Amino acid sequence: MKRDDESRLHLGRRGLCFVPDLSKFSMLRCVCLNNNKITEICRTSFNCCLTELYLQNNYITSISGPLRHLSCLRVLLLHNNQIKCLDETVAELRNMQDLHTLSLYLNPFTQDPQYRHYVVHHFPSVQLLDRKEVNLGETRLAFKTFNTERQRVLDSIAFGRRALPPPAGGKYINKNPSSQHRTKCKNSLNNGTERPSGIRQTQNSIVQVKVIKWSGSGLAQWNPVKSKPPIDH
């Protein structure tokens, strides 16, 4: 066992088949276990303050369970292993909000053509993925690909095809005057008393705009004006 100091531990190229229990070393911040024969990781292998973990070039088939408590991790190398499930891997790493360097290539799930964008979408803090810098174009494309509904709403708003939803606790009022005018006319006809049988409806509107008052929120007030019923000929 080689220790540079109390915070770094190097166990690479030792022929290890398992990860020893290192959780009791509370000062450890960096652990190197690369180039061994490790197939699985114990749930109590590492302390929660670890910031760098090197597990590349092993035979690990799953990381579900033993890493999710490593919320301080900034560097994680897992390339050239046998991890098959991408969803499980993403779920395991989702608490790592400070993760900026991640390496997963040469695992079976990386053969999926959308693998990189999927990882970029779920880990916005990652700046270096598989030894390649994450650029703004990849981030935007990942957002459009895996956040399709939200992107559709944003696109429709940008092109004026859809209005924003009403704020919480508020009431949305259509700002289109002609639409409000038609609505008021319809409500006046539907909610009023029945017309006498000798009176028929004419083509003229029975509601007129009396006051248009625009407030800071852009809402219009409409006041109905009573008019004489048309005379039946």
Mind explaining what this structure looks like?
By secondary structure, the chain is α/β, with parallel strands linked by helices. It folds into 2 domains: 2-152, Alpha-Beta Horseshoe (Leucine-rich repeat, LRR (right-handed beta-alpha superhelix)); 166-191 and 204-233, no CATH class. Helices cover 23% and strands 10% of the residues. It contains 5 helices and 8 strands. The protein has helices spanning 86-93, 115-122, 136-146, 148-158, 177-191; strands spanning 2-5, 8-10, 30-32, 52-54, 75-77, 101-103, 128-129, 132-133. Strands 1-2-3-4-5-6-7-8 form an 8-stranded mixed sheet, with no helix packed on it. The relative contact order is 0.07.
List keywords for this structure.
alpha/beta; Leucine-rich repeat, LRR (right-handed beta-alpha superhelix); 5 helices
What order do the helices and strands come in, and which of them pair?
Elements: E1 2-5, E2 8-10, E3 30-32, E4 52-54, E5 75-77, H1 86-93, E6 101-103, H2 115-122, E7 128-129, E8 132-133, H3 136-146, H4 148-158, H5 177-191
Parallel strand pairs: 2-3, 3-4, 4-5, 5-6, 6-7
Antiparallel strand pairs: 1-2, 7-8
Condensed summary:
The protein has 233 residues and is an alpha/beta fold.
Structural class: alpha/beta
| Helix percentage | 10-25%
For the report, how would you describe the main beta sheet? 8 strands, mixed
Under the CATH scheme, which class of the largest domain?
A: Alpha Beta
Poorly predicted segments? 170-175, 193-222
Query: Rounded to an integer, what's the Rg over CA atoms?
Result: 32 Å
The CATH H-level superfamily of the largest domain is Ribonuclease Inhibitor
- In one word, what is the shape? globular
What's the overall average pLDDT, rounded? 77
| Number of E strands | 8
Distance, first to last CA:
108 Å
Strand numbers in spatial order across the main sheet: 1-2-3-4-5-6-7-8
The sequence of SSEs as H and E is EEEEEHEHEEHHH
